[in-house]
Amino acid sequence: MPPVVPFSRLRPVVIGNITLPNPVILAPMSGVTDAPFRRLAADLGAGLVVSEMTASAALAEGRPDARLRAEGRGLRTHVVQLAGCEARWMGEAARIAEACGAAIIDINMGCPARHVTGGQSGSALMRDLDHALSLIDATIAAVCVPVTLKMRLGWDDRTINAPELARRAQDAGVRLITVHGRTRCQFYNGRADWVAVRAVKDSVSIPVAVNGDIGTCADAVAALAASGADAVMIGRAAQGRPWLAGQVGRYLAVRRAESAPPLAIQFAIIDRLYDEMLSHYGRAIGRRHARKHLGWALSAAAETAAMPDAVLKAHRARVLTADDPAAVRRHLADAYADFASRAHRGESDWACPQKTRHAPWGSERKAA
Known about the structure:
This protein has helices spanning about 35-45, 55-60, 65-70, 85-100, 115, 130-140, 160-170, 195-205, 215-225, 245-255, 265-280, 285-305, 310-320, 325-345, 360-365; strands at about 15, 20, 25, 50, 55, 80-85, 105-110, 145-150, 175-180, 210, 230-235.
């Protein structure tokens, strides 16, 4: 069993004038945490949800795709994550995000993707802390809302400079630091080093969130104990499971584990998400964006019912190749009904381990 974090240590997480309802944050994930998914996760109990990474220059230039990424209608606390390498664009984008309702601006200095670091954004900024601080200064100066920062441990094993960046960011006015427990050069290989995040926590007095390889309540407890952090950030484990952050938040509050929602509730959740994605993007684009969510949701449902691979694959093929939204909904309803019926009749693959091959565990560890 992982060590238990004492209740007395789980103090409320305060970001400027905002107190989180629980210390579990849904990570910003490109192509995943759009407004419909964030609204759903927030309604299901996530303590905070963060927009997918938005390029500051694109938002400042008024590009429609960037504005759509930064949209937060219906969220009680709207957080926009910005990425960039020029202070003027970071400041201007932060002003626009605030004017559009953002209650918190998050700065991305953690993304390891080559197309981001190649443009000297994301985790590439950890190679030049003076330049990184100029972006932080410009962002904070541009807005009245709190500014937070997401980073990695460093660029590589020879430059573990997260504690130094955290100290300087705090001095500049950043109100919360999130640390993914890997270097940029690790990408998503190996295991996140939660213990290494403790050096960041020890270096600052503002709240710290630990990120990386947190997919269960036990992971969250272990990560908090190892890092000394105040909050956890959950990434791709939430794909297909928008309820996960809320479940972990409730577990940290009362230490009572919850099973995955019943299949009927899971179906209602993904049906709502599909409907909202069609409204958010329009039918043509929305149905394409929704496919990955439908696939992850089917995998989660198959895990809940312990369905054999062949059953999952057959339903995935029908759902994900249908173009007409009415047909998609019909096939989706058939899939959940079939899972429930087979489980009731005892046709489940009970030999599957708890983290089954159906679940996207290989990809969910790649938290943004």
